[in-house]
Amino acid sequence: MMFNLAKTVNTTPLKIFSKILIMSILFFHASLAMANNKPIAPVLNAQSYLLVDNISGVELAAKNPSKRIEPASLTKLMTAYVLYGELKKGNATLEDRVLISEKAWKMEGSRMFVEGGKKVPFERLLHGLIIQSGNDAAVALAEHVAGSESSFVDKMNAAAVKLGMNSTHYANASGMPDPQHYTTARDIVKLARALIKDYPQFYKLYKIKNYTYNGIKQYNRNKLLWRDKTVDGMKTGHTASAGYCLVASAKRDNMRLISVMLGASSDKTRADYSQQLLEYGFRFFETHKLYASNSVLAEAKVWKGVSDKVPAGTIDGLYVTIQKGHYDKLKGMMELYKDIDAPIQRGDPLGKAIIKDGDIVVAELPLVALSPVDAGGLWSSIIDSIKKLFSN
User: Fold this and answer.
1) Is 209 in contact with 199 (CB distance < 8 Å)?
2) Residues of the chain with CATH 2.60.410.10
3) Catalytic positions, please?
4) Which of 9, 136, 322, 353 is most exposed, with minimal Cβ within 10 Å?
5) Nearest to 91 by CA among 152, 170, 134, 132
6) Which residues contact 346 (CB under 8 A, 6 or more apart)?
7) Where does the chain hold its CATH 3.40.710.10 domain(s)?
8) Residue 382: what pLDDT?
9) How far apart are CA 355 and CA 74, in angstroms?
10) Alpha carbon 368 to its chain's center
């Protein structure tokens, strides 16, 4: 059922900003709004962590989510994301035979134990990258699709910029320590959500519990895959300087949560802490779809156009994550700009919708034009200019 707005309010005259700017300013302020009206989140002894609803993007628990940290093997989430993109573009196939260079063969840390000078199917290396966290697989695949690891890293950093990971920079494809290799919990969530949304056909790889290559059986280091059947990903990481890290994702009913745990003291601790965050989120919160994409929520007044009205609504739809039992308490209102002159393009901002749980704002989204309106003739422009003088 579509959530209904309670009332319409005309604002004072406002300049119509660009679509991109207004979207970035208004979209989803729910994490800030809920801060004073939600159950107390777990307090955990780690460098940084974050719990987020995958669909709505609402932050449910956090500690130092913008702190710059070393991602260790969580790096391989971006390595895989870039590889999926290359497969999608046809620049590589799962059947490709990948030559293992001396550099890949000599990689230290976690490995899938490929042999130098041999060719290994792309798909097998992808499994070794994700399940066994193979540094050798990461370098071999990077060299295969980009010619060199450094060129592949350029692709990783370009992808980070495109995803809005503005506090992230990569220096290698495996996660080896480097002063110029860093990210944040918030940026990791952006990447995790993109992986789930953009490449669902590959996401299933993250729940595989073990993989055997070259006669060596290795187990996925994500302990939650054995503890909780609702957990189906995503990736562990560890170095002496980064501590123990884990990105976990679980789906119960129609709700998916993503937790990022950075800098825990042990393998067991990162799993325990991540489980606590997930249990907290599923126990106390629920996610609802308020508006479908392309929903018409109002009609905005248009001046100087071939039509005097334009349908206003949301192109992308809206989900909110709220405390359990609060759905019936939600109220909504619209604010529509008064001075909207034609021509209007689809997607131009016309105002905003505000969703409240009591007195707390849980979400805001821009109301945009769902269809274009061409400018009217000269006479129409003169008449409307006069009318506007008396309407303000």
Assistant:
1) no
2) 7-33+289-391
3) 73, 76, 133
4) 9
5) 152
6) 368, 369, 370, 371, 372
7) 68-184+197-235
8) 72
9) 35
10) 22
- Strands 255-264 and 48-53 come out as antiparallel
Phi and psi at 280, nearest 5°, equal: -60, -50
Fold of 7-33+289-391: Peptidoglycan synthesis regulatory factor (PBP3), Domain 2 (2.60.410)
Structure tokens at 208: 């595989």
C-alpha to C-alpha distances, 179 to 65, 69, 155, 171, 264, nearest whole angstrom: 19, 10, 19, 8, 20
Q: What is the DSSP letter of 54?
A: T
Mean pLDDT of the chain: 89
Region of 273 please: left (phi>0), alpha (psi -120 to 50) or beta.
Answer: alpha
Q: How far apart are CA 301 and CA 318, in angstroms?
A: 24
Q: Would you say domain 68-184+197-235 falls under CATH 3.10.180.10?
A: no
Q: How far apart are CA 220 and CA 206, in angstroms?
A: 9
Angle at 99 between CA 95 and CA 104, to 5 degrees: 120
In angstroms, what CA-CA distances link 317 with 198, 232, 329, 356, 368? 18, 26, 20, 17, 11
Cite the beta strand spans of the chain per DSSP E. 7-10, 48-53, 59-63, 97-99, 119-121, 210-213, 216-219, 231-239, 243-252, 255-264, 285-291, 295-301, 309-314, 318-323, 330-336, 349-357, 360-369
Nearest alpha carbon to residue 249 among 285, 187, 204? 204
- Walking along the chain (392 residues) 10 residues at a time, the average pLDDT comes out as 46 37 37 56 96 96 97 98 98 98 96 96 98 97 98 98 98 97 98 98 97 96 97 96 97 97 97 98 95 91 90 91 92 88 93 90 90 84 68 64
User: Tokens representing 90?
Assistant: 């046809």
What whole-number distance in Å separates Cα of residue 43 and Cα of residue 284?
A: 16
Assigned token pair, 72: 């260790």
Alpha carbon separation from 253 to 233, 288, 326, 328, 330 (Å, rounded): 16, 12, 18, 20, 22
Those residues with Cβ within 8 angstroms of residue 257's Cβ, 6 or more apart along the chain or in another chain: 51, 52, 53, 54, 60, 249, 250, 251, 277, 278, 281, 282
Coil, helix or strand for 58? coil
